[in-house]
Specification:
Elements (H helix, E strand, L loop, with lengths): L6 E5 L4 E3 L7 E7 L2 E6 L5 E7 L4 E2 L13 E4 L3 E7 H10 L1 H27 L2 H17 L4 E2 L4 H8 L3 H13 L3 E4 L2 E4 L2 H10 L1
Antiparallel strand pairs: 1-8, 2-7, 3-6, 3-8, 4-5, 4-7, 9-11, 10-11
Length: 202
């Protein structure tokens, strides 16, 4: 039922896939690529909440509440995705309790991940925030080491709630301590135990 009426869409890096405060008319399934979820505030204020990669399902945060998207999703790399009509999701949730349960678990995992990120940003010192980000990129997004972030230093700083200058300074400290090595956008975690300790101590 879902596949029958899906629409395949290709996005180039930098293009907006979903826009905050627009109608939550579709659910998006990312088939290939990397995108970022952004909370937009007043003016130009933005916070990158998390990244989403291949096989992710995005509802926009408002499919069952208010029917308004609560964040923006923007392509980091080229993204291949499918748009599925929200009405079809409503129908499936109403008639298939197992599907509804799995969708609820997915949304809960996403919410917990974003909550943990926000707690880290507000309660940890800058080294702890950077350590959290590097571990997140390695273990949850790219699943390899070294990894190519494909993100600018400004984007990485935005994910930690820091200025770009502060983020680069902490990155250099980690490099000097031989916890990581950095080559352009590629990062290699050399001492994950040390990084995990910094993350825990905040």
């Amino acid at each position: 039922m879902l596949v029958k009426e899906k629409r395949h869409v290709h996005f180039n890096a930098g293009e907006t896939i979903l826009k905050q405060n627009t109608s939550a008319s579709h659910v998006v399934c990312i088939k290939r690529g990397l995108a970022k979820i952004i909370a937009e505030g007043d003016g130009d204020k933005k916070l990158i909440l998390r990244l989403v990669a291949t096989h992710s399902i995005l509802t926009g945060g408002g499919i069952f509440i208010e029917e308004i998207r609560h964040f923006t999703v923007q392509a980091v790399t080229e993204v291949e995705c499918c748009f599925i009509d929200s009405d079809k999701i409503y129908e499936l949730v109403s008639n298939n309790s197992k599907f509804a349960f799995e969708l609820l678990k997915l949304n809960n995992r996403q919410n917990i991940q974003m909550l943990n990120n926000l707690v880290g940003i507000t309660q940890k010192y800058m080294p702890g925030r950077v350590a959290d980000l590097l571990l997140y990129l390695k273990n949850e997004i790219f699943l390899c080491n070294p990894f190519d972030t494909r993100l600018s230093r400004q984007e990485l700083a935005d994910m930690t709630g820091m200025t770009m200058e502060s983020f680069i300074r902490i990155l250099k400290e980690f490099k000097t301590s031989e916890i990581i090595s950095v080559d352009g956008s590629q990062i290699h975690i050399l001492d994950e135990d040390a990084l995990s300790l910094i993350s825990r101590k905040g």
